[in-house]
Amino acid sequence: MTNQLKNKLLEIKGLKTYFYSDEGVVPAVDGVDITIREGETVGIVGESGCGKSVTSLTTMRLTPGKVVEGSIHFDGKDILALTDDEMRSIRGNDMAMIFQEPMTSLNPVFTIGEQIGEATRIHFGYNKPKAKSHAVEMLKLVGIPRPEHIVDEYPHQLSGGMRQRVMIAMAMACEPKLLIADEPTTALDVTIQAQILDLMRKLRAEKNTAIMLITHDLGVVAEMCDRVIVMYGGKVVEESDVVTIFTNPKHPYTQGLMKSIPSLEVEERRLYSIKGNVPIPGSLRDGCTFAPRCEFAMENCRKDAPQLMEIEPGHVSRCWLHTP
Ligand SMILES: Nc1ncnc2c1ncn2[C@@H]1O[C@H](COP(=O)(O)OP(=O)(O)OP(=O)(O)O)[C@@H](O)[C@H]1O
Ligand SMILES: [Mg+2]
C-alpha cells in the first residue's frame, strides 16, 4: 500500500508555540504543518534552535510554551482539547517519546523495572511478575547488560548512556502507534546506536509503529525515513520523500544542509556548516527567515515571506525561487 492511501495518524496544522518572557516573545514554532501516516517514519531536520523539540513536546502536550494557534489531531483525537487525564492515558501508551534529556522522563524514586512495567500493566493488563519479566526482555533488547539486575536499580545508579537506553525501552514497551524520538541515539556509541535503530525498525515492521525522528544525523535520516521535513526558524521550509530530499533538494537552505554532509570517509556526520547563524526567534520582522543567509536572496525575499508551494506532487518548498 502506498503511503498516500494509509490513514493519517498525526495531523498538525498551523501550529504556533510561543514563549513569553520579560525580554519579549520567542515564536519557537511559527506555523508548522506535519502529517504522519500509520507506520510511516518522518524525519525532522534543521539546525539547533529551529523548533524541532518544541514541536515534538507540543505534540505530547509537554512544552512549557503557549500554543497560540493551530491544531493537533492524533488517532482521531483533538490533542489540544483533551483533559489532562485523557492526555496522560495517551502518553506512554499510544504516543511515546524518547527525549533529548533522559533524566526528564525517568522518575528517581521508582526502580527501572517499575517504570517500564507501569505502562505495560495499564496498557496490556500485565500482573507484577509478568510486567517485570517483560521489562527485563525490553532491557535486553536495548542492549543493557545484566538486565535481571538492572531492573531492580534506580535511575541515578546508571550511566547516562544506560539511562538513554532505559528510556528507549520504556517508550517502546507499550508498542505505541506513534514513537517520537528526539535525537534518540546521539549520546550513544556507534554500536549501540545501530542496535537502537534496528530495534526501531523491528517495532515498525512488526507493529506498524509510526515514527517522528528528530536528528542531526543525515545518515540516520537516509537509513530510516520515508519522508523528511526540513525546518528553519520555526517553520517548515521543505518537505518531500527521502530520496528526493537527498537527490533533488530545492530550498537553498536544504541545499546547504546537503552540501554540508562530509565525505563518506569522515566518521563525523553532524551538521551543519552553512554561513551565518540561525536567527534568534522573534528577531526577524519581514520577509523570508532564511534571506539573510541565502546566496540567492532577491529584493522581495527581504520584504515578503514566501508560502509553502508544491513543486511536484508530494514535494513542497517555501521559497520565492519556486513561487510562480
Ligand atoms: N522553555 C523554553 N523557554 C524559552 N524559550 C525556549 C524554551 N524551550 C525552547 N525555547 C526556544 O525555542 C526555540 C526552539 O527550540 P527547540 O528546543 O525546539 O530547538 P531544536 O530545533 O530542538 O534545537 P536542537 O537541535 O538544539 O535540539 C529556541 O530559540 C529555544 O531557545
Ligand atoms: Mg531539540
TrEMBL record:
* GO BP terms in the entry: peptide transport
ABC transporter domain location is 10-258
Q: Which UniProt keywords apply?
A: ATP-binding, Cell membrane, Membrane, Nucleotide-binding, Transport
The membrane topology term of the UniProt record is: Peripheral membrane protein
Q: Name one GO molecular function term.
A: ATP binding
Protein's UniProt keywords contain Nucleotide-binding: yes
Main location (coarse class): membrane
What Pfam family is a match, any one? ABC_tran
Compartments (UniProt record): Cell membrane
**SUPFAM superfamilies registered for this protein in UniProt:** P-loop containing nucleoside triphosphate hydrolases
| Family per similarity comment | Belongs to the ABC transporter superfamily.
- Please state what the protein is called: ABC transporter ATP-binding protein
Tell me what organism the protein belongs to.
Paenibacillus thalictri
